[in-house]
Amino acid sequence: MNTDARYSLKDDPTHDPSHDPALGAPLVALWHAVWAVGISLTALAAQMLDGLKDAPLAALLLMAFPGVLGVVLMVRDTLGLRLLVMAGWLVGATAAAGLTGGVTGALPGLILMPLAAGIALDHGQPGSGRLTRIGAFAVGLPLLSGLASSWLNGPEAQAPLLAAVSGLLALGALIAAMRLTWGEAQRRLIRAEAQADRIAALLRDQPALTLLLDPSGRALATWGAAPPALSIPALSDQGLIPSAHAPDRPAVSAALARALAGQPAEVQFSPRSALDRRVILIVAPFHHDGDRPRLIAQAFDGTAQFARELGLEIARVEAEAQSAGKTRFLANMSHELRTPLNAVLGFADIMRQKLFGPLPERYAGYADAIHQAGGHLLDLINDVLDLSKIEAERYQLALADFDARDAVSAAVALVRLQADDKGVDLAAVLASEPLTVRADARALKQMALNLLSNAVKFTPAGGSVTLTLDADGSDLELAVSDTGVGIAPEDLQRLGRPFEQAGGADQKAQGTGLGLSLVRSLTELHGGRMTIDSTLGEGAAVMIRLPVMVAAEAEMRADAVTEPTPTTV
After folding, report:
1. Which of 481, 482, 467 is nearest to 404 (CA)?
2. Where do the H-state alpha helices sit in 101-227?
3. Which of these, 520, 524, 404, 527, lies nearest to 467 by C-alpha position?
4. Are 270 and 279 in contact (CB under 8 A)?
5. Residue 210's beta-bridge partner residues?
6. What value does the mean pLDDT take over residues 282-309?
């Protein structure tokens, strides 16, 4: 396992590039080639000096054959090819021993070559040793072959020099094979130990605490620095659960159970010895080579994080309390303002109608202005009051069954005069059949009135405003479109929030920014949604969808009752 992305074998002082695993097959092929050359030169030299008999010469040439065969590993290296080469060594050594008499013959050293070849062929096969074992057992076949040859043909005359040379060749091949394969294993072991020391140092010096736990939560091994107030001896002796504060123990136990079930878990708890601190524990299942179930966990000091979360929670509660106080203040102030304002409107209306006698023309104009401004202020106060009730969750919908066309038509009638005075064409497209809904009639009328008022307000003379009311399944669709100034794309996201307005200062002076906010809030109280679509300079369209249709629900229930049940004949 590579514990550091910047660490590689090149950084290891024990690493020898000449023994890289990628060079395994070429080195084995080189060992075979050197053997083939060495045994061939021995045969040539012996023939030139002493004139070898046919049997020893044939034996030497036979032993060169597996060396030549092993050179194939330079081109392709597979376990099957290595076994084939091993078989070649076995056949060659057995035949050579049979020709020369084995240990009693002229070439006794060749009997050891299957063992040497097995060791060499295990190079580049980490941890197997399979071919070495095959070579060790295979030495018995040449030995038996030589003994059988001696028994059948009688012992041959010894050639001491040739026997010594064969022994030296076999010994050299064996030492080279051992250095090639076992030296590599030793270097691999040294690298593994260095890597293990490196990993141990990383685990020991990490800022968190890593634990290996048994299913009960007792620490079997620990690495790293423990969070403050969490005792490692206590974790080893008593376990993780007793080390936690009593109210937190069920959560810790549940996290351990979840990890045992195969799912990682995270839990926060207070150490028993320091209730003002917090520990964050991440635990996961640990499986290794069929061992009994265990868990691996990491523990961090979560005190600072807990303090930040607590501060955020306190700030959230305070903000909610302030918002609720603001809402209650607005609601109370709206009530207090509406009472004297109604009196002002009443007296202004008496003066406009001249109930107690005629007024000078100038005072009559003042009375009209007072009544108009007071009406605008009363509408604003009513919007603030309704919005405050909704935000304070004190607005109660008066649900009843009625024809939605009646409430919307009443809103159209109220805006008709305003549209005519401004020169705006107001059209209402209503469904021809009754639209029976279960909703708040006053709220539906208010939504239609606010949308129509906004559309007329921001549509210049000669423009048009169209209201459409229809049913779509279980939803009531109310759409108001206009050919007014439109809304800029950057303003669309803000509209619908209290006191948010679009356009320039002249447009903002025409309203308060509460109309669309109230429409959105009333729509959401009915479980519906509001959407706005607009192109700057071309107009806007606002649609609300309310899941309030009664007829559609009744029809669906009737269809479910009367639908025939399929039968099988």
Report:
1. 467
2. 113-121, 130-138, 140-153, 160-205
3. 404
4. yes
5. 223, 298
6. 83
β-sheet bridge partners, residue 568: none
The pLDDT-based confidence of 16 (bands split at 50, 70, 90) is: very low
**What single DSSP character describes residue 230?**
-
pLDDT band for position 384 (cuts 50, 70, 90): low
Segment among 198-212, 353-367, 440-454 with least mean pLDDT: 353-367
Helix (H, G, I), strand (E, B), or coil: what is residue 124?
coil
The pLDDT score that the predictor gives to residue 566 is 39
Select the more confidently predicted residue: 316 or 339: 316
User: What is the rounded CA–CA span in Å between residue 241 and residue 230?
Assistant: 12
Element (H or E) spanning 276, and its range?
A: none
DSSP assignment letter at 549: B
Neighbour-count burial for 115-133, b at 16+ CB within 10 Å, e otherwise: bbbbbbbbbbbeeeebbbe
Other CB atoms within 10 Å distance of the CB of residue 261: 9
Give the span between the Cα atoms of 118 and 272, in whole angstroms: 62
Please name which of 563, 519, 528 lies closest in space to residue 549, comparing C-alpha atoms.
Answer: 528
Tokens of 537: 């300079």
352 class by beta-carbon count within 10 Å (0-12 exposed, 13-18 middle, 19+ buried): middle
Give the C-alpha separation, 303 to 230, whole Å: 13
Sign of CA dihedral 103, 105, 106, 111: negative
Measured CA distances, 407 to 48, 284, 402, 478, 493 (Å): 125, 61, 9, 12, 29
pLDDT score, position 95 = 85
Q: What is the reported pLDDT for 8?
A: 43
Tokens of 167: 């022994």
